[in-house]
Write a structure and sequence with these properties.
This is Chloramphenicol acetyltransferase. The chain is an alpha+beta fold. It is built from five helices and ten strands; from the N terminus they run βαβααββββαββββα. The protein has a single domain, classed as Chloramphenicol Acetyltransferase. A hairpin with a 5-residue loop joins strand 5 and strand 6.
């Protein structure tokens, strides 16, 4: 982790403009082609979620703006971003699951599956306050065109949020709705587009 020198930062003007907004979070939703990855994973009977989550974390870790966080008026850049996701439980509630990003997919797959299984069977509600995370949710029952997240306006919040929806078919391709929300002082629509494009590229080129 390193601290960004704001005075010499190329985003200084944008950062100072957006950082004190009452609601500085902005976002976009996009349908991402997932045909190739889905068909390959279907052959293995492995978790499609864990496969595409690895691609999403890879894309976000490659884009430095997604590794930036605001903490006590400082901008911090983390070397690596990990994930936390909601895990659906048998009683129709959920728990949070925390997992580390590993470039090596077999290691990521094994550790993430273990973390998901643990979260499913925990009776207590698990929360952490780490900054080097991406908040992940999955709504596999519907596709969507937008989504709104809850916020505590008196709490500093600069962690991006990503939501994956139900896969659907369009023009002979499998599509998955993906929503990303982030702090506008740290990144813009350009960086969101870079993520969507890179994520889709990783889903195609397996």
């Amino acid at each position: 982790m390193k601290e960004i020198e704001i005075e010499n930062w190329n985003r200084k003007a944008q950062y100072q403009f957006f950082k004190n907004f009452d609601d500085p979070m902005f976002g976009a939703s996009s349908n991402v082609i997932c045909t190739n990855l889905y068909n390959e994973v279907k052959k293995t009977k492995e978790s499609f979620f864990v496969h595409y989550m690895h691609k999403a974390l890879q894309a976000m870790n490659e884009i430095s703006e997604f590794r930036l966080r605001i903490s006590e008026d400082k901008v911090l850049e983390f070397q690596k971003i990990n994930g936390t996701t909601t895990v659906f439980k048998k009683n129709n509630t959920f728990n949070f699951c925390y997992f580390n990003y590993h470039k090596e997919f077999p290691k990521f797959y094994s550790s993430t599956c273990d973390a998901i299984d643990t979260a499913k069977n925990q009776d207590h509600f698990v929360t952490k306050n780490d900054l080097n995370l991406i908040y992940v949710s999955v709504i596999p029952w519907r596709n969507f065109t937008s989504i709104k997240h809850p916020r505590m306006f008196d709490k500093e919040d600069s962690i991006p949020k990503i939501v994956f929806g139900k896969i659907f078919e369009e023009n002979n391709q499998l599509m998955m709705p993906v929503s990303v929300e982030a702090h506008h002082a740290l990144l813009d629509g350009y960086h969101l587009s870079c993520f969507f494009n890179r994520f889709e590229e990783l889903m195609k080129n397996i």
